[in-house]
Amino acid sequence: MDKLNYFNYCSLVILVVLTAVILSRRMLRGRRNRYFWNLLLVVLCSVIFDILAVYLDNGAGVNVLEKYVAHGGYLILHNLSVPVYVIYLACLTDNMYKLRDNVWVQLLLIAPFACVLVMILTTPFFRMIFYIDKNGQYIRGPWYGVLYLVATFYIGLGVIYALRCRRLFTRGQLLSMLAVFPLMLIAWCVQIVEPGMRIEMFAHTMGILFILLMVQKPEERTDSATGFGKPSAYVTDVEQAVYNKRPIRILLINILNYRLLLDVLGYMSTKELMNLVAERIAQTCRTELPKADPYYLDRGRFCLIVGRENFHRLDSAAQALNEMLKEDIYMQDMNINLQSNLCILRCPEDFGDLKSILAFSNEFEEYEKTGKVFYAEEILNDGRYIIKDIENIIENAMTNEGMSVYYQPIYSVEEKRFVSAEALLRLNDEEYGHISPELFIPVAEKNGVIHRIGSFVLEEVCRFIASEEFQKLGMDYIEVNLSVAQCMRNNLANEILGLLEKYHVRPDQINLEITETAVADSQNIMAENVRILAEAGIPFSLDDFGTGYSNIRRMATLPLNIVKLDKTFTDLEENPRLEIVVRNTVRMIKDMQMKIVVEGIETEEMAKQFSDMKCDYIQGFYYSRPLTREQFVSFISQAQ
Ligand code: C2E
Ligand code: MG
Ligand code: MG
To answer: Which residue from 249, 255, 286, 616 puts its CA 20 to 30 A from 360's CA?
Structure first.
């Protein structure tokens, strides 16, 4: 009876297309991709051997050796594909390292296949699995069933393993990973009943197709231009390492001048440049760190996840990468010089949870810009990095009265007395001590706690203004900082007006500060909030003027009463041109009928310079640092 090769031809076409896709999308980098590639190659080769075997069986010739090679090759590869698939599953769940450590598991995985291999290789002599009779006919041997037995064992192992690790996969992924097994079983049954129907490899091929589309997900996981993992792949892989408690090192690489390059070169050329950088990183890794998994996060940020087998090479590899990144890149007739930043992070020693690792991956460039390779450990040890705890710190401070409001007096040049003050938030933590609002406000904005913090400050200020001691001071108003997130809140105006009513505070007794950046990026909701509050009689200040992208047009359209010139403008000695800028800025603001506060005045000289320029108010350490409520009351009582 002739055997049918049609299913094998279909499999061959599909597998060749998949191979082309993988090669063109450069899906060969990283462990996951490498193991999938091995699986694909094993299946592809077994299809080729099967086609050959069927071809020889159907032909008239009686070449026994050729037939032994073709059938033997097919059976070896075919039986190898199932354990290779199980190993691929172990890699998907990031458990290869456990496999490497455990001799028994290794034996469990290798021994059955090793038996099969010996039986197939010796079959020409003992005729256990198959033999070619004197007519050149392929005949199954008495032990052929062992092949099915061993494959069933591996399938069982795979199913149990996949189900045990189901938490690491989506339902679709799990189903497609398991679907491979019933597909194989059905194909076996068909082939047992109809040995001429060569359908087994077609089932394997379908399985491979499922896995590629549902689990490997080239669109989602791999950046086709560089072959590096995408950010989502980075998140999944770190999550798996954390879940499995697998120790890893992450080498973070950041191109610091990426923004500048983007401005100068434009999007397409910068993308091309980043591809070149990726290529160079991959090249260096080939020799220095061969088993690292590379990722391209975004905006000039790359990273490598390194497993334990490569820990000892990491330091020298990081140095080599740093050296390599300092070399000029020649592109479009330009010599481009990258400024890079490399940091080594240890998991779980430095950070043991996904959230902190991702936060640090995003922010590490803030901490070190020396151009040397540095370690997350250094930053953690010298107390610069408290972000990993900041959410707890804020939460703790909110419940344990660790937050307080300080007041910094503001001096009126015209009236020659302190007319107002700025309310400044202070956070005191038992472990870390005083933490600057510049550090915790951005975090509070991201996680939404800013609204509670903002309400706390507003309430404290209203309570203070309503108090008798404040009324005795004879001051006009208190300035309160509003953050961007607060300004975008729907019920901000209601809340503030409600508080004023509750404490019987007049609208002109508070002044709300919004930063220049908030104004520049301002959304409609913010303008609406400002309009309602301004109509209710609350004056507004524009804070930190001159530090962001000054959106003068928007500034002119908002109902602002005061502009606060940022403290970076106060040192006029530094640059004579700065004085011209400041002088004209002051004039422009005054022409716009707004008052001016200068922040950060530290010396008598500075105070004189700005009062000569006819600035209205002066705030700074020269007069007073921010003070507690009690200190502030006694300071003003003595000064007035
Ligand atoms: P800001 O609103 O520009 O506040 C002025 C900052 O300059 C304060 O820093 C103040 O202590 C500091 N400063 C005042 N005079 C001098 C001086 O003479 N020399 C120097 N070098 N600095 C001076 P602080 O208290 O660390 O606050 C930093 C920023 O945190 C504030 O900048 C503000 O943007 C934000 N912030 C503070 N409290 C709050 C708050 O209650 N809510 C919100 N949303 N933001 C706040
Ligand atoms: Mg302010
Ligand atoms: Mg300011």
So the answer is: 286
Q: d(Cα 79, Cα 49) in Å, to the nearest integer?
A: 13
Residue 614 structure tokens = 């006819």
The whole-number pLDDT of residue 472 equals 93
- State the pLDDT at residue 388: 57
Which class for 84: exposed (0-12), middle (13-18), buried (19 or more C-beta within 10 A)? buried
- Ligand 1: residue of 398, 424, 487 to mutate (most ligand atoms within 8 A of CB) is 424
Between strands 138-140 and 130-132, the pairing is antiparallel
CA of 573 to the centre of ligand 1 (A): 23
- How many angstroms separate the alpha carbon of residue 376 from the centre of ligand 1? 28
Ligand 1 atom nearest 602 alpha carbon: 18
Type of residue numbered 235: V
- Do 512 and 541 contact (CB within 8 A), yes or no? yes
CA-to-CA distance for 532 and 102, rounded, in angstroms? 68
What residues are in contact with ligand 1 under a 6 Å CB criterion? 408, 424-425, 436-438, 441, 457, 481-483, 513, 543-544, 567, 599-602, 619-621, 626
The tally of CA atoms less than 13 A away on the side-chain side of residue 461 is: 30
User: Between the CA atoms of 223, 229, 234 and 239, what dihedral angle is there, to the nearest 10 degrees?
Assistant: 120
Choose the residue to mutate in 514, 597, 599, 619 for probing ligand 1, maximizing ligand atoms within 8 Å of C-beta: 599
Question: Per residue in 378-418, pLDDT tens?
Answer: 887 766 666 556 778 888 888 888 899 999 999 999 999 99
Residue of 410, 481, 601 to test ligand 1 pocket, by largest number of atoms within 8 Å of CB:
481
Count CA atoms within 13 Å of residue 392 on its CB side. Answer: 8
| pTM tops 0.70, yes or no | no
Q: What are phi and psi of 347, to 5 degrees?
A: -125, 125
Q: Give the pLDDT of residue 636.
A: 95
State the distance from the centre of ligand 3 to the C-alpha of 513, rounded, in angstroms.
Answer: 9
The neighbour count for residue 323, using CB atoms within 10 Å, is 11
**Cβ count near 223 (within 10 Å):** 24
Q: How confident is the model at residue 361 (pLDDT cuts 50, 70, 90)?
A: confident
Please tell me what DSSP assigns to residue 574: G
The residue written with tokens 């202070």 in the block is 426
Nearest in space to 390 (alpha carbons), one of 438, 331, 342, 444: 444
The three-state secondary structure class of 386 is: coil
Each residue's pLDDT tens digit, 446-505: 778 888 899 999 999 999 999 999 999 999 999 999 998 888 888 899 999 999 999 999
Of 300, 290, 288, the residue nearest 253 (C-alpha): 300
Closest CA to 400 of 428, 423, 425: 428
Asked if 464 and 509 count as a contact pair (C-beta separation under 8 A), the reply is no
For the chain, the average pLDDT equals 89
